[in-house]
Amino acid sequence: MVGRVEVPQEAFVAALATDADIEKVKAARKAGQ
Q: What residue numbers bound the domain in which 21 lies?
C-alpha cells in the first residue's frame, strides 16, 4: 500500500517540474520577443 502512495507523489512532483520547465520556456520566448 505504501508503494502505491509513493508513486503518485513522485508523479505529482514530476508534473510540477514539467510545469516549471514550461514556464521557463514561456519566459524565454517573451524575453526573445
A: 1-33
State the pTM of this model: 0.48
Q: What is the DSSP letter of 33?
A: -
Q: How many domains does the chain have?
A: 1
- The amino acid present at 17, given as its one-letter code, is A
Per-residue pLDDT of the chain (33 residues; tens, 9 = 90+): 566 666 678 888 888 889 989 999 999 999 997
CA distances from 28 to 9, 12, 24, 31 (A): 29, 24, 6, 5
